[in-house]
Amino acid sequence: MKVLAINGSPRPHCNTATLLNYALEGAVSQGAETELVHLYDLDFKGCISCGACKEINGKSCGRCAVNDGLTPVLRKVEEVDALVLGSPIYFADVTGEMRSFMERLLFPALPYDTNHSRLIKTGLIYTMNQKEDVVKQIGWDLIFRLNEMITARKFGQSESLIVYDTILWDDYSKYVSMGVDVKAKAKTRKEEFPKDCQKAFDMGVRFAKR
Ligand SMILES: Cc1cc2nc3c(=O)[nH]c(=O)nc-3n(C[C@H](O)[C@H](O)[C@H](O)COP(=O)(O)O)c2cc1C
Question: Which atom of ligand 1 is nearest to the CA of 10?
């Protein structure tokens, strides 16, 4: 049983990476082999629309043909039993790197049927500054549902863990951060973030169970 996690944050030790590590710890607790990949360590681009993955009878049909820093990661995905993608929300969407990764991962399989894909469990973990009620009021949560649909279409199963009201800076007094209620954020960090970490851990346990 292999579980791969992909960090779409430029920060290797902050909110998103912490949650991904909890998910992997959960998987390890069930005996899984795990790996965490930091997308910002890699040199790659998003889909270049070359069409090679769609070429009927082409040698790359159903597979991304671009050869760059992401290629080994896409090959790893073909061998794992579960995949967890984590990204901060940047301007109401996943980061550019995560978006580029998703294009390369997901476009080759669409609109092919599931014969082109191995069915595995997939999880999507998002972290963001905003609070849950505001996110829902603005309708940002549509993006979470769409990503869940697209990943489920390729891999057969997908679930999301959405983590709101995270801390961006350890010390907000050093940064321009108007409108941030620092005390309330510290409280959320202390009381809610550990619950989210537990949810990530539980996701890892579920994913690693046969
Ligand atoms: C460029 C940038 C854009 C951001 N845009 C949003 C946003 O649209 N909505 C939001 O709630 N948080 C936004 N944030 C805050 C991050 O999503 C949040 O702090 C996240 O938890 C950071 O994840 P990390 O600690 O793993 O890097 C933004 C942060 C940055 C640096």
Answer: 27
CA neighbor of 122 nearest in space, from 77, 69, 71: 77
Reference 15, options 206, 205, 200; nearest CA is 200
Q: For the chain, give every domain's residue range.
A: 2-202
Bond into 111 cis (ω within 30) = yes
- Structurally, what CATH architecture does the domain formed by 2-202 represent? 3-Layer(aba) Sandwich (3.40)
Successive 10-residue mean pLDDT values, the chain, 210 residues: 98 98 98 98 98 94 96 97 98 97 92 66 97 94 95 93 96 90 95 98 94
What is the CA 73 to chain-centroid distance, rounded? Answer: 14
Q: Confirm or reject: Cβ of 125 under 6 Å from ligand 1.
A: no
Q: Determine the Cα–Cα distance for residues 142 and 97; give it in Å rounded to an integer.
A: 20
Q: Which of 5, 162, 169 is nearest to 81 (CA)?
A: 5
DSSP string computed for 17-34: HHHHHHHHHHHHTTT-EE
